[in-house]
Amino acid sequence: xxxxxxxxxxxxxxxxxxxxxxxxxxxxxxxxxxxxxxxxxxxxxxxxxxxxxxxxxxxxxxxxxxxxxxxxxxxxxxxxxxxxxxxxxxxxxxxxxxxxxxxxxxxxxxxxxxxxxxxxxxxxxxxxxxxxxxxxxxxxxxxxxxxxxxxxxxxxxxxxxxxxxxxxxxxxxxxxxxxxxxxxxxx
Length: 187
What we know:
alpha+beta; 6 helices; 3 strands; globular
């Protein structure tokens, strides 16, 4: 099943890239045949808030630099992005769903569950990679599994053993604890 999902997701990713590379005509063709259009329960491609953008960019630039991918090398960047839908070569992938009836609070539950699962995997010698990108196309995932109608796909989690690949050595660092403090006591 994992291999079929990988094929389905990569085919959608490839169709989306072809549409973007095809300019206006490519995008119109994608709209007409519906091939590659994201069908996720949540948007995975959105404008980052301006105050969070510097950290996102620094992390992305650092990652691509560690991988030896130049900013101008669109083909290499797309190949690296496509690896999300190949589960980065991990032998196991899980999908995390949330109940729509819990609204925004479902994200809290999912985050707690995801962190606990990732820490447990680490304690057992496994590596994990939480992947928001795996929620881009919910259709293939929901067709592969018996997902109740009130559950929405929020992310995927690739699980396996870490390789010696440069990506696994990259560490964007942590922000200062003071960056997490968003409110100040009023005088």
